[in-house]
Amino acid sequence: MSERRGARSNIFVDMEHDVLHPQSAATDAFREAVEHYASRQDTDRVQTPRSTPRVKVLRVIRQLSEIEPGLPIERVYVDAFSGCSDFRGTVRVEAGNEIREYDFAWDCRWRAEQQGWQDLFGFPDQIRAAREFGWDCFEEWQLVSEPAQRRDSILR
């Protein structure tokens, strides 16, 4: 019997252990919530409005912590749609006294095209891009508006 039977994919396992940037100023409560979320437990600090692949939400969290390592992240709300090769939407972030919002597009097909990688059928090798680049396939990451003062939690 294979030792891998029942094991999670390497992509998910890697994200489970390395979600936040090592220098991230995310709060301890958020760090703990991300660990719970990565282990398939619900948390009020990481939310989505619909069923969403957790690994894709974790990629967004990793990107956020890479782009804004000094941000004391408390909560995120990821409103996005998942396709075969992409994940596009908006992430709202509570951090200290402010709320920030980013538009994003994670797209492993785009990354494969950028690398010039093709599969056996001549299509962009999105599987290779997702495996080799993991979270780092963001075609777009843009601050939607200047940080706003937080009046109430974005999550309920």
Question: Topology, please?
Answer:
Blueprint: H1 10-17, H2 28-38, E1 46-47, H3 54-67, E2 73-82, E3 86-95, E4 98-107, H4 108-115, H5 126-133, E5 138-143, E6 148-149
Radius of gyration: 16 Å
The outline comes out as: elongated
How would you state the average pLDDT, rounded? Answer: 88
Report the helical percentage.
Answer: 25-40%
Question: What is the gist of this entry?
Answer:
The protein has about 160 residues and is α+β, with helices and mostly antiparallel strands. It has five helices and six strands; from the N terminus they run ααβαβββααββ. Helix 3 (about 55-65) links the parallel strand 1 (about 45) and strand 2 (about 75-80).
Summarize the structure in words:
This protein is an alpha+beta fold and 156 residues long. It has one domain. The protein is 31% helix and 26% strand. The protein is built from five helices and six strands, in the order ααβαβββααββ. It has helices spanning 10-17, 28-38, 54-67, 108-115, 126-133, and strands spanning 46-47, 73-82, 86-95, 98-107, 138-143, 148-149. Strands 1, 2, 3, 4, 5 and 6 form a six-stranded mixed beta sheet that branches. Strand 2 (73-82) and strand 3 (86-95) form a beta hairpin. The longest helix is centred in the middle third of the chain and has 14 residues, at 54-67.
List keywords for this structure.
31% helix; 156 residues; single chain
